[in-house]
Amino acid sequence: MPMTRQDDFDRIRQNGDFDVLVIGGGINGLGVYRDLSLQGLRVLLVEKHDFCSGCSAAPSRMIHGGLRYLENGEFDLVRESLAERDALLRNAPHLVQPLPTTIPLTTHLSGLFNAAISFFGWAGRPAQRGALPVKVGLSLYDFVTRKRRQLPPHRFRTARATHRKWPDLMQDLRYSATYYDAWISMPERLGIELIRDTSHAAPHSIALNYAEARPIGDGFEICDRESGLSHAIRPKLIINASGAWLDEVRHSLAPPKPGHIGDRRPLVSGTKGSHLILEAPELFRALDGHMIFFENADGRVCIVFPYLGKVLAGSTDIRVDTVGRTRCEDSERDYILASLRRVFPDLALTPDQVVFSYSGIRPLPRSDQEFTGRISRGHFTHRIDGDIPQICMVGGKWTTFRAFAEQTADEALEVLGTARKCSTQDLPIGGGRDFPHDHATLAATLAQTFGLGEERAHHLAQTYGTSAHELLRQCPLQSAPLPQDADQAVSSGEIDWFVTHEYARHLSDVVLRRTSLAITGRISLPMIQDIAMQMAKTLGWSGDTTQTEIETLITELHQYHGVSAEMLAQRSRPRSTQCA
Asked: How many CA within 13 A on the CB side of residue 388?
């Protein structure tokens, strides 16, 4: 039986000495938490809300080398991104898989001069990208990965060949270029797996959601936001991995000194990115398994690709001045749909096909660039000296989280005078350990070993990878889906697992982050009620608490994800009625 939340707080109460305090449970914080813990340090991570519930829950779900970063001359970032993409394909193959990506091209040379003068500091809006600059970029992409190639090299097609494969693409294209990157099915689950791996390999460390660190006197205290109880801690070093909230947190931990203007200058300059999930069968078929990576009329790069049976499309890139939780506004939804109609002009794409939307603030390095696409997606650390030094993690993206964590951990080890013991570069993550050739092979093994149906076994293989063996051994009699779950997407045993093994504390943790129920548009009111009742049994909720959890989730779905109570009610009806 894993340690409970109360066990963790008891350990803090008994011994509040930690080598490192990590503030922020997004992917960067979780990455550095794992890395430092594996070096033998005692690390405490605190996240104010749920793990991976901020920007880390709102990526484009691409694991990519950053082809367009070449235009900004960021060769080192592309090289690092490609290496980390390939590492994730090796280490987390249950969640990260190859994604063939196609670029429709309507010109020959356009954008070549634009790309060239970027090296001399030109920062304006890029010109339309033509076939030749894209060819140069993809050739560089292939060159960087030539020694440990895991994915096929790029290829070009003529307009005729392109339309044979994608007849619904715009008719004015002249060429298309196809290359490979990768996609991640459930990024929030990968974050949870990092914590679980760390708890097994380094049980001296502790990760807490729904907790926060507060300065008190010459030290700090950890406040449990669930119980309100606090405990004193004494870290030797703080790592600020709070993403878009980094400046707010660093000033709360180390207020700027009078007269030190540089201490007040922001390190982070956020941009808002919104995405749509569409139930659009014609568009799903038209993509033919590829992501279409295309340029909108305003120069913004947009994407659309098949995602867990639906279609994911995005994104916007809007500068924000005030940090806070965001939602995809109607204007952003219309912008994304208009961009799709530009590349698939004959398909009917309407707002009522949107089953889910999400938005987050990218914590990019501070920049004065007028065109947000020119802001670097790179990362760096900023150290603040003091009695308890603070290392700020600035920037970063999902693909490079491991490399950024390693960079930050190396700096922390230097501060603490400790040598590195191991690298995480080739370390499997969670259900990626001992993963077979593909999901179908694992699903067949699960079906045979545990007597599961094909659909149920496939769901477990895709969601948990090889960790499904552990789940099924502990919950053998609870592997059947919930009564209201026609798609066999979650069982009572899984819900207990989320609470006892994956740190779920609230109904939204399960529906929005431990499963794909919400993002794929499958969640309905009866399913919400079933999940809430199961969590109530495990967590000991009262009837009032259970009802509050249900109402809070319904409000959150409506306010931040465009899923109204009417939509949930519609999904509650029998399928024959819905199709009528």
From this structure: 23
**Beta strands 62-63 and 379-384, pairing class:** unpaired
Please state, in angstroms and rounded to a whole number, the distance separating the CA atoms of residues 220 and 197.
27
Question: Looking at residue 168, what DSSP letter applies?
Answer: T
Tell me the pLDDT band of 539, cut-offs 50, 70 and 90. Answer: very high
Give how far Cα 19 sits from Cα of 5, 85, 147, 329, 522, Å.
Answer: 21, 30, 39, 43, 43
Residue pLDDT, tens place only, 132-184: 888 888 998 888 888 777 889 999 999 999 999 999 999 999 999 999 999 99
Closest CA to 92 of 189, 234, 199: 189
Alpha carbons 173 and 165: distance in angstroms, whole number: 13
Dihedral class, residue 272 (left if φ above 0, else alpha if ψ from -120 to 50, else beta):
beta
Helix (H, G, I), strand (E, B) or coil at 419: coil
CA separation for the pair 122, 114 (Å, rounded): 8
Q: Closest Cα to residue 328, out of 304, 363, 357?
A: 357
In angstroms, rounded to a whole number, what is the distance separating the alpha carbons of residues 101 and 294? 10
Beta strands in 289-364 (DSSP E): 291-295, 301-307, 310-314, 318-319, 354-362
Q: Is the pTM of this model over 0.85?
A: yes
**Residue 578 pLDDT:** 36
Tell me the per-residue pLDDT of 238-267, one tens digit each, with 9 for 90 and over.
999 999 999 999 998 877 665 544 567 889
Phi, psi (rounded to 5 degrees) for 247: -65, -40
Q: How far apart are CA 28 and CA 141, in angstroms?
A: 25
Triad 115, 273, 424: Cα angle to 5°: 80
Rounded Cα distance between 44 and 232, Å, is: 12
- Predicted pLDDT at 113: 40
CA 59/CA 420 separation, integer angstroms: 31
- Nearest residue to 568 (alpha-carbon basis) of 484, 456, 460, 459: 484
- Helix crossing, 543-561 with 565-572: angle to 10°? 110
CA distance 106 to 126: 15
Backbone torsion region of residue 465, taken as left when φ is above 0, otherwise alpha when ψ lies between -120 and 50, otherwise beta: left
Place of tokens 């002009």: 345
Question: Cis ω on the peptide bond leading into residue 269 (within 30° of 0)?
Answer: no
Half-sphere exposure of 9 (CA within 13 A, CB side): 18
Q: How many CB atoms lie within 10 A of CB 113?
A: 12
Do 578 and 570 meet the contact criterion of CB atoms below 8 Å apart? yes
The per-residue b/e assignment along 121-156, b for 16 or more CB within 10 angstroms, e otherwise, is: eeeeebbebbbbbbeebbebbbebbeeeeebeebeb
What's the pLDDT tens digit per position in 393-409? 999 999 999 999 999 99
Do residues 326 and 21 make contact, with C-beta atoms less than 8 angstroms apart? no
The CA–CA distances, whole Å, from 325 to 54, 209, 360, 523 equal: 8, 17, 7, 22
Cβ proximity of 271 and 372 under 8 Å? yes
- DSSP classification of residue 154: P
